[in-house]
Specification:
The complex is a heterodimer of chains A (212) and B (172). Chain A contains ten helices and no strands. Chain A is mainly alpha-helical and 212 residues long. In chain A, α1 runs parallel beside α3, α6 runs antiparallel to α8 and α6 packs antiparallel against α10. Chain B is elongated. Classes of the chains: A mainly alpha (212), B mainly alpha (172).
Chain lengths: 212, 172
Amino acid sequence: MRCDEFEAYAADWLDGERPPEAVNHLRTCRRCSARVAELEMIVSAAANLPPLDPPERVWISLRNQLEQEGLLRERHSVWQRLHVLLPAAPRTALTTGLIAALAALLLMMPQSPLGRLGRTGNGGAGGPEFQRVQQQLANGEALAGQDVHFRDPEVAASYQQNLALVDNLIGECARRVNEDPSDEMSRQYLATAYQQKADLLTALAEREALGE
Amino acid sequence: MVLRMVGNPAEAEDLTQEAFLQLFRKIHTFRGDAAFSTWLHRLSVNVVLMRLRKKTLPQTSLDEPADNEDETSGPKRDVGAEDPLIEGSVDRVRLERAVAELPPGYRMVFLLHDVQGYEHNEIARIMDCSIGNSKSQLHKARTRLREILQDAARSEARQQRLEASEKTGSRE
């Protein structure tokens, strides 16, 4: 067999098909055996390439889009959660404070959480609209820091991790909004990030109110 | 996988989101006659191909992926010519760079088979082509990768020789 004839077998060789004539050729041909070895090296390296996961913002943006299209619904919106919490007597200063903070937050966004905040014309991330939301969330977070005592360390770790994630996201979005206050997508991301933080704190208030 | 297909992180994020949006919009059309992962990959590949067609590569085809890409796949090599060996092992960074240089059709079949571990019959479904076509594209992709890696090895060797001679010259 000549080298150009072996070419017809080379593809199947890597898939494990090894007819005797091709085996014989490789025994005697250094160039073809080196070529096959290199192709095997490539196949092996490819199989070991690590998976590349998309960053968190892709999932957040996807969720946002799906909610806007009505393809995905929040398990409970902040409004629904407050509706559940308000009739019950708040058990701690935390729930009282959080309910006040979240209600104030919702009053700032009368149409939808993304409504006013997401629109341009409100300045950068340091503008009055964003500042008020940030202040209310900071109040809620401070109350959580003072009053919540997690019974389950895994829940505590998960809360801290989620808080760090959402804070990072807020930081990144705020930076983008400051760089270009007219960038509506960044503004919407920032509004969504604030909404997520409000959600996280509401979940905390729920746990506290239910004594979990 | 989408990032490896398009090579641009921002565009890959955009396309990943688009693929998952389509997944949600079309989930009711999944009939269960193929593996769910095959269906999802097919969706992703279609999203990527649509984007590539719109942008720069109107010749990219689902029916005959990349068969016409030989013309653009770099210098032709004489079968009888001596090939330089890829020195050492193929490391991740070199391989990723080389994959990014492949024409899109080759790249997709290579990523699906050698990176994601799909069989040719699954790739044929995902890419809407024949099993033979998938096999042929894969072999061409691997061969082209080897050429790209050889070129890179040659360039590195040349660079090292140049640096060594500069050092020697500066000592003298």
